[in-house]
Amino acid sequence: MMMLGFILLVVVLYCWNSSANSGGSSCINYRFGANTSLEILNERYARGEIQREDYLERKQELYIQKQPISLKKDK
Fold first, then answer.
1. Contact 41, 62 (CB under 8 A)
2. pLDDT digits over 12-60, tens only?
């Protein structure tokens, strides 16, 4: 029983450390396939599912969407 607890502790510490070093994406999310939209787009382009023009257009859209939106009104 104590050995199981130790193994669980090691796994949790590994995941916590890897998420801290990778900029926030935890190993648990990675293992279960939680990809970002850009990763999915890159994979589809690499597999040849979409053409270059479509890829570049969609990539630009994703970058535009990630820009912070200001709620202040210009006077």
1. yes
2. 888 777 656 555 555 555 555 556 888 999 999 999 999 999 999 999 9
Burial of 26 (0-12, 13-18, 19+ CB in 10 A): middle
Phi, psi of 14 (to 5 degrees): -60, -50
Regarding pTM above 0.85, the answer is no
Chain centroid offset of residue 66 CA: 13
Token duo for residue 33: 């396939």
First to last CA, the chain: 67
Question: What residue spans define the domains of the chain?
Answer: 25-65
Are residues 53 and 45 in contact, defined by beta-carbon separation less than 8 angstroms? no
